[in-house]
Amino acid sequence: MAEQHDVTPEVAQELGGFLEQRREQIAQRWADAALFRTVFTVSRDEAVEACKAVVDALADVACSGRLEDIHAPGFDTVREQLSRMAATRAQAGFSPSQVAGEVAGLRQPAAALLQAEFDDPRAEHAHACALALTVLLGTLRLVVMETTVNSGEALIARQREQLLEVATPVIKLWENIVAVPLIGTLDSARSQVVMESLLEAIVHERARYAILDITGVPTVDSLVAQHLMKTVAAARLMGAHCIVSGIRPAIAQTIVHLGIDLGTITTRAGLADALAYALGQQGIVVSPSPAAGAIPR
Amino acid sequence: MHAPLAPTTHLPIGSDADLAWVRQQVRKTATDLGFGLIQQTKLVTATSELARNTLVHGGGGHVEVTPLRAGHVCGLRLSFVDAGPGIRDLDLAMTDGYTSGGGLGLGLSGAKRLVQELIVDSCPGRGTTVTVTDWASGLPAPRTGTR
């Protein structure tokens, strides 16, 4: 079995020579394939140029004899282009395996051209060349898959960074009153960012009241409660009074069952209640304007 | 033993991101089984505590999620498995306020109050398995004692 699948260096060289010679024809056919046609939409020439770059890379890899090596230097020239193509397909809603399927679709047109090179397509030598082409395009498929996975991982890492800073805006609600709407999972890294930005805002806004709203926090367990208590304690040291708001009925029951004692913290059901409390503490009275309130019915 | 309603799913617990995923999956499964909002919240919070114990004290492990059925009542069994150092003194570990990891010390004892049944199986040096069972009705199923 092993010798059947082995591609000899001579065959690899011959395949490389074929790819160089038939560069134009292969590129013309590939430009009509879905993979290139849908990505390079400006003009057909652009698609053909992109195809030629890929054919050149494949020829280079074939000549170097490293048909099964996805790290072959020949691929380096097109790696960026391939990852851009894969990204465009992914944006159009195609899964990585569908994109891989489209790459596999490139084999048939090239194989047809290769077959035409031989007087007797059934000869053993012709078979060896066809096999070499199949192996080479299989490697190309792996290269495309690898770039897709890498770009996916880079995207996830970037989004994780973005989440850290996006999700903790400190809002000034009134003179002396700031609020932080907490959203999502409060893991250690996030709660650290929350605490820092709240303490900074307390100094910056000279706030005497700080409202921590947990409406958007799906689960309040003992660790989240501990983070909240630490934040409240730190704010108190800076002379600000903290109010925790957005405590839903289910969360309230859960906190009680868990045995967490929030007795030392001022809590309110909603953000509006917390704001009313903070205003009331400062002796600020908000009343409806006489015009709106004095409609006798 | 109650008949499993669906096959057991294994979820890894190896990082903070895994904890969030486990919480989400348990919440989704509990919703599908007809758990009410309050019970769901309690179960997810207990999950969060126990999964964090698996991560922090057990050095990581996995959770097995099994939907159950007894008559017309649907339930959920969660087994948190780790191969960590184990719990040396279970009574102490179940005491409110006792912690070996710098937390509030309410994880295990609090979780026990949030669910209908919690069983700790631990052997020093050979890891810990905490199994919780909760039934959607709010009341334990009739034959819940036969294990």
UniProtKB/TrEMBL annotation, chain B:
Residues 38-138 form the Histidine kinase/HSP90-like ATPase domain. InterPro entries: HATPase_C_sf, HATPase_dom. It holds the Pfam family HATPase_c. SUPFAM superfamilies: ATPase domain of HSP90 chaperone/DNA topoisomerase II/histidine kinase. It comes from the Bacteria. Coiled coil: none annotated. This is Anti-sigma regulatory factor. It comes from Streptomyces galbus.
